[in-house]
Amino acid sequence: MKTRQLSRIFFTLFLASLFLCTTLLAGNALAASLKERMKARLPQITRLKTDGIIGENNRGFLESRQQNAASTALTSAENQERQTVYSAIAQQQRTSPKIVGQRRAAQIADRAPSGTWLQNENGNWYKK
Length: 128
What we know:
By secondary structure, the protein is mainly alpha-helical. The chain has helices at residues 2-22, 28-50, 69-93, 97-111; strands at residues 54-56, 62-64, 117-119, 125-127. The protein has a two-stranded antiparallel ribbon.
C-alpha cells in the first residue's frame, strides 16, 4: 500500500514538473504528445523500478540494471524524451542539458520511494 501511495505522489510531482517543462517546448502539439507518451510509460517504468530492473542514474536518465529486452526499448524512448525536455529547459535557463539532467537526478533521488535503485554523484549504485 505504501509503495502505491508513494508511486502516486511521485507521479503527481513528476507530472507537475513535466507540465512546467513542456510549456517551454515549441509547439503545443509536440508538448502535449510528449507529455502523453511519458505519462503512458510511467506505470511500466514504476514497475521496472520496483522490480529492480532499471534505476535512475546521476544524469537524470533511466538505466538498465539487469538485461531485459522489454526495458531496453522503454528506457530508450523515455530517455530520448527526457533529453528533449532537458534541452528545452537548458535553453530557457541559459545552461546546458547536462546541468539540467543532474539537477533533475537530484530531485528524482529525493522523491524516489524506498527500494528504488539510484546512482550517486560518484557513479555508484545504491538502493534507497
